[in-house]
Structures are given as C-alpha cells and as structure tokens.
Amino acid sequence: MSKHFRIPTRLAALLQESGIRVSAVLQRANLPPGLLDQPRALVTTEQLFALWSAIAHVSPDPAIGLFLGTAAKPEHFDPVALAALFTSTFGDAMRQLSRHKQISCPEEIALKITDTESSIQFRFLLADEEEPEVFTDLCFAWILSIARHGTGSPLSPIRLELSRESSTYARALERHFGCPVRLGSTRNALVFRSSDFALPFVTRNAELLSMLAPQLDEQLKQSLGEENFPERVRATIQKRLAGHRPKMHDIARELHMSSRTLQRHLQDAGYTFHQVLEEARHQLARHYLHNSLLELNEAAYLLGYEDSSSFVRAFRSWEGVPPGLWRDGQRAKTVTTQP
C-alpha cells in the first residue's frame, strides 16, 4: 500500500476552469506553491484533506466536488479507472477498482453486496479524521462517472447515504446522482441495486484489459513488497547500531544497492531514512530499558548517541517521559501483574 496520494495532473487546470485560484488554495492548505506544477505530486492523507478543505473554502460553488469528480471523457481517467472501464460489467469494474486502488494511495474501496443492494464505500486507511465533505462528493461522483461511461446509460443509484447532518446543496446532490440523499447516516455510501452490477459495459475491451491488468497486478505486487522495505532497512540499522550512528550509504551497501535506490524505495513507501533510523532506535531503546539492566549512558552508546542527554531528549520525544521514568513505570507494571 502506498502511503501517499498522487494529485491528478489535471487538477490545476480544472480549478482554474472553475474560477478557483490555485495559489489561494495552496496557501490556505499550507502546501508548497508549486505543488500542482509537479508531474508527480505526492501528498500525505493529512495534506490531501487540507487541500480539499481549502478547495471547498475558496470555491464559490459548494458542490464543486461533483464537478471535479466527473470526467467528461474516458481518456481523462487514470490507469486504474481505465482498466475498470475495459471490464465486462459494472460489478467487474467495481471489483477491479477495489483490487487495484491501493496501488496509488492509502485508500480502499469497500464493496458490500447482498441479494438486493450493493453499496460502495471509500475508506482512508491512514486518516486521523473524517474526510472533507467535498472529497466525499468527488469520490462518489467519480464512481458514478465510471458507471455511466461504462454502461453508456444515465445509470443512477437507489440512494446516497451521507454522515453529514445537513447540506446546503442537497438538491444539487439529488440532481447529480439521480436518487434520494439520506443525510445523518451512519456511513458514507453509494448504494445501487445488486442487479445493476450485472449491467454490461459498452466500453469493455478484453484485449486492452489483458495488456493493462497485468501491469497493475505487478505494480500491486511491488507496492506490497515496498511496504515491507522500511522494515528491512530498520532491521539492518539495528544490526549496525553498536556505538555509532550508521549512515545511509552504510545501510545501502549492506542491502547491496546504491544510496539513491534506497532513498527512492523508502520515499515510495512514504518514509525517509531519518524516520526509519529513529524508529529503529526507538524500538531498541524500549527493548534495552525493559529487558536489561543497562545504565542510561550505556543504552545511549549502543543506540549511537554521543551522550546520554541526547538520548534522554530523543526518548522524551518518543514516549513523552524521560527513559528512567519510563523504565520505572514498566517495572511497576511487571510487579503489579505478578501473582
């Protein structure tokens, strides 16, 4: 699973087309001014939510998410959506999306299928808060756009469930999706008839799907492998943490790769070398303090710190308390749990 979202390259043009100043959006979201000019702009979940909250604030249209989530032409879709369009039915398309969505971002599409109804939900796997309403609108408009392009018909769900208690543009939502909108629901979900999942796609193309799907499967395989790459780096760092702080080129040589390759793999997994180094130290610090009688200055040396005060500052940033106090707390827990 990728830990970053890729910003669509067309977003800046679509915002300008909607009369929204890109600079105003990025400034309000506290994001770099040239972010949307990059050919491969990556953001964290927190940054993505800040971006869409800013778009909602700057836009004069409260239903802007519906416009930005609706593709006018199939060629405007990303490769994952294109592969979905090449499948045989609406249901196959949704299953294809569900399988490959996590290649590009820490987000999953959850399908719940019964005899009569089938619901589609988006889950943001690294989110600490609920996604902005404008982004929920965009996600469901994107699904509807795929469904209508694929079936070649004005297909509509039977209802749209939204957790928001109220909406100033509920009528616009109903017009866009062509169905009732149920506010104050326990979930955000787009609900279709289960029979709709059997509708054939006029865009199906077995030849193109056979070319594109294996590439996506390979990307998914690599993505799952890259998810474990930081763990390999962390373990290698811990083996070399013995009185000195290993450099990136030391770890890269140990893993039989260049520093640039190591850095790129970590970046693809959403990490920096410094982050993995600190995680390695944190794990070992907890182990040393909990399972040994090492003095603090000895633990500091083994973790590659120049002195114990540097170790104390780092440990306080990790656990919120000094290492000595943390150790005392762990020992107290052990005593209270003994029979």
Automatic annotation (TrEMBL):
Pfam families: Arabinose_bd, HTH_18. InterPro entries: AraC-type_N (IPR032687), Homeodomain-like_sf (IPR009057), HTH_AraC (IPR018060). Residues 231-329 form the HTH araC/xylS-type domain. Keywords: DNA-binding, Transcription, Transcription regulation. GO terms for cellular component: cytosol. It comes from Granulicella sibirica. One of its GO terms (molecular function) is transcription cis-regulatory region binding. This is Transcriptional regulator, AraC family.
